[in-house]
Each structure stands twice: as structure tokens, then as C-alpha cells.
Amino acid sequence: MPEIVTLTVNPAIDIATSVERLTDTHKMRCAPARIDPGGGGINVARVVHRLGGDCLAIYLAGGPVADRLGRLLSAEGLSFVALGIEGETRENFSVTELCSHREFRFVMPGPAVSEAEWQRCLGYIDALQPAPRYLVLSGSLPLGVADDFYARVIEMAKVRGSRVVLDASGPALRAALPHAPYLIKPSLNELRQLTGRALETETDCMQTAQEIVRKGHAQVVALTLGAGGAMLVTQEDIVRSGAVATSFCSTIGAGDSFVGGMVWALNRNAGVQEAFRYGMAAAAAALSHAGTELGSAAEIKQCYGEVSLA
């Protein structure tokens, strides 16, 4: 069993294209589409794999889209286990408007998942032998999955000695925090939703992240700030990094890449600050690609040298 396992409850196939200008009612002739595997944990696993890490991606999937998703992952050489469900896996769609360089993202809700299906997933994770060193829980929960699903996984994983990395939002994040995942990676908007605070200044963000750590709800908070870079907060340190200068194409997969870079480095026994640098580098490398095409190992390592911590 690989030391890094990712779980994606609501995976997708991501379709990306572009048009000169978005207009209503008229047909818009699109550029050829780029098609990639998608979903939080799947993208994390893709980054770990590109960096040479041994990783297993576990996800729930059903219908013809699931078959295509499996073929895409096989083409990348990624190890995966698809746990079958009755509902059909979703497809997401993004369009770049060339005249403005704005990106429009259309994210589908995904299939309904029955209690029997998500309970079977819990049982599969709990039976992994040996338990993974790092278990990454990333992405949205589809209709039918209990809000405390991630909380239940965290409790099972901690008993077995796994470190849990959580990238979630809304009720799923709120329910999971009292169960103390090792690391969480909220975006600024996700942290605002979680706390109900405006978080208008960097000090506000820092103090809120410190409060999460102080309460024992996570040992590490990696807060991504979009164009503003990111912030790392632990009990011992507060580290800030501005965004890495790179050519910009798409934001899709950047946050997942951040998690993938961090987890890959942590599993190699890197310190948290070094792992944070790799997270920043992987995110920057993803930004320069269309759709959910992620950065290569060479691009990530090049960006790593450009990350500045303060």
C-alpha cells in the first residue's frame, strides 16, 4: 500500500475550452476542448505522482463517465481504485473568454450517493493495509453524503496512525475540525464562510488561523490567498509567501496542486516550511496551464527556486 492515499468522493471529468467572447442566445464556436481527470483528491494524487511519489487515488464513480475517467488516469500511469456507485460521475466545464482573459467555471453538483455506498467507502478506507502514512481528503461532498463524512474518516484514520490532510469547505469542513485533522488548506473565501468573519486584513487571517491551531482543530493551517500568495500557521511559526511570478492561464487545479506539493514533501520528511514552498511551487506551475493540466516535475522544481518566504 502506498504511503500517500487520496480520497475523492465527488470526482469529475474537467472539460476546458475558449471562445472569443461570451454572448447570450447566440451560438459560440469553441476551440477544441481539453479533457482532464478532475476532483480534489485525484488532482492531488496526479501531482504526487508527477513528482515521483507513490500514491493511490481512491474515488467513488459510476456510469460511462466513470469509465472514461479511469482511462484518463490509466493514461497518466496513476494507481487508483474506483468504488462503484449507481449515479453517474459528473462533468465540469470551463470557458476562457479570449477578449478579456476571464475564466468562467461551471461546476456540476455530481450524482446522489446512497448511504450504503458512502458507508461502503468508509469500510474500504478503514480496511486499508497497512494504513497510509498520509490520507488526503479533498473536494466537495455530493448529495446524499452526510456532512460529517470527513469527520468519520478522520477518526478512523487517526486510530490507525495516519496523518489526515483536509481540503474541504462549508458544513463538511465545519464538522471535521473538532476531530483535529493534521493539516487543513482553506482558501480565504472558505475561511470567511467557516468563521463568518470578513477577514479584511492579513492580521485578521493570521489571528483566525492561529485560533484554529490553538483550539487543537489542526496542527497546520495552510491558507491560500489567491493572487496574494499563501500563509502557513503552526503552533511554532507563521510564514508568509507572495504569489510566484508565472504566466497565467487557468486557476483550475492550483489549490489541489498546492496540497499535492505539500504532501509529497512532507512524506519525504521535509519540514513544514519546505513543504509549504513545494506547495507554492506546484500551485504556480499549475497556473500556467489550460484546464486541469497540472505542472510537470521540472516546472514545479523550477518554481520552487522562486518561492520566497517571510
List descriptors:
about 300 residues, alpha/beta, UDP-N-acetylmuramoyl-L-alanine:D-glutamate ligase, nine-stranded mixed β-sheet, Carboh/pur_kinase_PfkB_CS, 6-phosphofructokinase activity, kinase
Describe this structure in words.
The chain is an alpha/beta fold. It has one domain (4-304): Ribokinase (UDP-N-acetylmuramoyl-L-alanine:D-glutamate ligase). Helices cover 37% and strands 22% of the residues. The protein has ten helices and 13 strands. It has helices at residues 40-50, 63-76, 115-126, 149-159, 170-176, 188-195, 202-214, 254-267, 272-287, 297-304; strands spanning 4-8, 12-19, 34-38, 55-61, 79-84, 90-97, 102-106, 134-138, 163-167, 183-184, 220-224, 230-233, 238-241. Strands 5-4-1-8-9-10-11-12-13 form a nine-stranded mixed β-sheet, with helices on both faces. The longest helix has 16 residues, at 272-287. The chain starts with a strand and ends in a 6-residue tail after the last helix. The mean pLDDT is 96.
Estimate what percentage of residues fall within beta strands: 15-25%
Q: What is the average of the pLDDT values?
A: 96
Total domain units? 1
How many strand segments?
Answer: 13
**Largest sheet properties:** 9 strands, mixed
Q: Which series of helices and strands comes N to C?
A: EEEHEHEEEHEHEHEHHEEEHHH
> Radius of gyration over alpha carbons?
19 Å
What share of the residues lie within helices? Answer: 25-40%
Report the CATH superfamily. Answer: Ribokinase
Q: Supply the CATH architecture.
A: 3-Layer(aba) Sandwich
Task: Extract low-pLDDT stretches.
Answer: none
Briefly note the CATH topology name: UDP-N-acetylmuramoyl-L-alanine:D-glutamate ligase
Query: Count the helices. How many?
Result: 10
Distance between the termini: 37 Å
Q: Briefly, what CATH class? A: Alpha Beta
